[in-house]
């Protein structure tokens, strides 16, 4: 076989055509993976977790993002801050990925010691002229949006994150997530590129044949349909669906629950979308019987039938219901490996076995995540195949995928690729 010259990343990006999936190299190449980390995970705001991950002074969450790492710490003053997970002596990692409870941040290499506000307070054998005040931990941009924690590893963070803050603050406020707790969390590793993980999440074209547990609570028309292929009976169903949506929207908005769709996608630096969706069946929660999983509702919620506040960013997706919340974050581990981390939240005073059953709370999305992992692996195998060529998105059910690909292309070009 003759050696063929490899296209540059910029050439690959510009080779992507509207309405089609990405060229294979954007899913498979190691240099593209490194570029993606730089552009989409080091320069963008990323969803890191919740204030509930660090509920007490001394609680620290370390999050690894590619070769970089950040610490989110609640100080003795109750303030949550973020720092580079890098000792200011010789660069050792202070804590491994995960959650910890500490009195001080102590480097395991030479025991340089930092307060939870980042100040260096102990460094042996550095001489009387050593100025500790210049060697505190490097801060990382951190914002709490009603208890959701976002961080940015860049020196200058995207300013249009203010749009997300303004849009999501009133939507999230009724859930009072600062007074929620993590009931359960787990990480699975998908054998696929992070963009395939996100493409899979951005459409429900596949849901009917893949997600029996989730379909119980999902309204099928929410995810698109070809109007030219509808029978008369299906047209009547769509009309009923639209009337039902309008009725619920008016009722929710009348209760002060912001519910209309907001798209902040292609054409923006920060990518997010939100909308409150009707829950099928009993209309209370994403459970197998569509009834609330927790008897103790979140925050100021008083009515279980309050829909599903759906929210996504470029690498996470969220469902906020009256009784519990689900947040899922995807972080790339390699060109064809992605860590998918899911958290389930309930009211901080809800008692397992009394107010909620953990299996019932988690079974729908644990099943859905496992099913999605299989689908992503199937797609990764295909995009590695010599027979792969970019295929067409459905304009009726996969429009958000085309938008995501457009946004990706815009951001890569803006970054100089």
TrEMBL record:
<dbReference type="InterPro" id="IPR015879">
    <property type="entry name" value="Ring_hydroxy_dOase_asu_C_dom"/>
</dbReference>
<dbReference type="InterPro" id="IPR036922">
    <property type="entry name" value="Rieske_2Fe-2S_sf"/>
</dbReference>
<dbReference type="InterPro" id="IPR001663">
    <property type="entry name" value="Rng_hydr_dOase-A"/>
</dbReference>
<keyword id="KW-0411">Iron-sulfur</keyword>
<keyword id="KW-0408">Iron</keyword>
<keyword id="KW-0479">Metal-binding</keyword>
<dbReference type="GO" id="GO:0051537">
    <property type="term" value="F:2 iron, 2 sulfur cluster binding"/>
</dbReference>
<dbReference type="Pfam" id="PF00355">
    <property type="entry name" value="Rieske"/>
</dbReference>
<dbReference type="Pfam" id="PF00848">
    <property type="entry name" value="Ring_hydroxyl_A"/>
</dbReference>
<dbReference type="InterPro" id="IPR017941">
    <property type="entry name" value="Rieske_2Fe-2S"/>
</dbReference>
<feature type="domain" description="Rieske">
    <location>
        <begin position="45"/>
        <end position="151"/>
    </location>
</feature>
<protein>
    <submittedName>
        <fullName>Aromatic ring-hydroxylating dioxygenase subunit alpha</fullName>
    </submittedName>
</protein>
<keyword id="KW-0560">Oxidoreductase</keyword>
<dbReference type="GO" id="GO:0005506">
    <property type="term" value="F:iron ion binding"/>
</dbReference>
<keyword id="KW-0001">2Fe-2S</keyword>
<dbReference type="GO" id="GO:0051213">
    <property type="term" value="F:dioxygenase activity"/>
</dbReference>
<keyword id="KW-0223">Dioxygenase</keyword>
């Amino acid at each position: 076989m003759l050696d063929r010259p490899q296209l540059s990343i910029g050439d690959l990006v510009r080779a992507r055509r509207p309405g089609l999936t990405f060229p294979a190299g954007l899913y498979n190449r190691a240099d593209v993976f490194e570029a993606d980390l730089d552009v989409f995970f080091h320069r963008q705001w990323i969803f890191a977790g919740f204030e509930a991950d660090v509920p007490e002074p001394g609680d620290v969450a370390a999050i690894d993002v590619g070769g970089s790492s950040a610490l989110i710490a609640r100080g003795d003053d109750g303030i949550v801050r973020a720092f580079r997970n890098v000792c200011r002596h010789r660069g050792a990692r202070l804590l491994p990925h995960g959650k910890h409870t500490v009195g001080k941040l102590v480097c395991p290499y030479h025991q340089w010691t930092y307060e939870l506000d980042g100040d260096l307070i102990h460094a042996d054998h550095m001489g009387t002229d050593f100025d500790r005040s210049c060697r505190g931990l490097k801060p990382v941009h951190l914002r709490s949006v009603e208890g959701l924690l976002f961080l940015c590893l860049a020196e200058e963070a995207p300013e249009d994150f203010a749009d997300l803050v303004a849009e999501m603050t009133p939507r999230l406020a009724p859930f009072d997530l600062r007074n929620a707790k993590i009931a359960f969390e787990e990480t699975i590793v998908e054998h696929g590129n992070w963009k395939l993980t996100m493409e899979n999440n951005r459409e429900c074209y596949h849901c009917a044949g893949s997600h029996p547990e989730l379909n119980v609570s999902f309204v099928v028309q929410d995810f698109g349909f070809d109007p030219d292929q509808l029978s008369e009976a299906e047209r009547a169903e769509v009309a009923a669906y639209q009337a039902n949506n309008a009725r619920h929207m008016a009722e929710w908005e009348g209760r002060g629950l912001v519910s209309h769709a907001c798209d902040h996608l292609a054409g923006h630096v920060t990518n997010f979308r939100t909308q409150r969706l009707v829950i099928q069946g009993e209309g209370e929660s994403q459970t197998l019987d569509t009834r609330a999983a927790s008897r103790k509702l979140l925050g100021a919620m008083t009515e279980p039938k309050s829909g599903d506040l759906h929210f996504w960013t470029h690498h996470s997706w969220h469902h906020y219901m009256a009784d519990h919340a689900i947040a899922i974050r995807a972080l790339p581990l390699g060109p064809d490996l992605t860590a998918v981390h899911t958290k389930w939240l309930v009211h901080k005073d809800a008692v397992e076995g009394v107010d909620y059953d953990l299996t019932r709370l988690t079974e729908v999305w644990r099943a859905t995540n496992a099913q999605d992992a299989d689908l992503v692996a199937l797609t990764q195998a295909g995009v590695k195949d010599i027979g792969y060529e970019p295929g067409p998105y459905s304009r009726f059910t996969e429009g958000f995928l085309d938008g995501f690909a457009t946004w990706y292309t815009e951001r890569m070009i803006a970054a100089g690729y």
